[in-house]
Amino acid sequence: MKINQTVLKEFILVGFSVYPHVQTFLFVIFFCLYLLTLSGNLAIMGLTWVDRCLHTPMYFFLNALSFSETCYTLTIIPKMLVNLLTKNRNISVIDCGLQMYFFLGLGGTNCAILTLMGYDRFLAICNPLRYPLLMTNMVCGKLVAYAWAAGFFVSVIQTSLIFRGSFCNPNLVKHFFCHMRAVVRLSCLDSDLTEFIVTVMSVSGLMGTFLVIILTYVFILSTVLKIPSAEGKQKAFSTCASHLTVVIIHFGFASIVYLKPEASGGDDTVIAVPYTVITPFLSPLIFSLRNKDMKNAFRKVLGKKFLE
After folding, report:
1. Which residue intervals define the domain G-protein coupled receptors family 1 profile in the entry (predicted)?
2. Structural domain span for residue 27
3. Cα dist. 255→105, 201, 231 in Å?
């Protein structure tokens, strides 16, 4: 049991206050990235809604991912931007718990939807004849609902474990948001055991979904290599390129955060930036710029605007 136990009502998010001379610069950079991230995701959601050519399972899942990532960034970035400009970086224990709950839930949902996108490509390429029967609108809707349910089911367990007891002073969260590792270390209970359990849950979910995606691409690759024409192979691979790129970036940055050895050192605040800010920014950019259907839909919308 830790000493100096007290019933804390709020935490202080240390964040980037340890770098006082660059906080204004960081605010400008993060604010611009956040606006571009929101614009990209809203553009994807809008285009997949208005263009009938994009009313397919692949773009249904992309729309779901864009919505999930929009909510994901809303849970942490606005608060981070405010804290970069103010000296009052307090957050109540309840708000901290809610932020953690939604961050973990939406992070898990993102991983699950990326897995569904890989499964969708697997069915489309490896089983094209039965694909329209297997991937109906009803099935796609249920799969996305399951992804949200799974993400928030794990999240409520992790958040409950961390917030089940009281917290000890000092109430300094050494992060720019209520990251589970930073908060659990302030617990008056056995924080090492709790930290181990929630970390194992996160790593298991992360690696499990990643391995499923890798397995789907093994089957996709074996099928594509059997296609006789080079044009057919290129067309098949082109439908997977954007998704595979995002998967590598998403799981690559996430693994740095969750698989980093404790003894390796490094500032957790800085290490989390790629996963929480850069990845959501790159995702809509990659799906838009590397996708012919999305670019054609964008040209159609622009054409209609100019005609009006």
Report:
1. 40-249
2. 10-289
3. 17, 13, 35
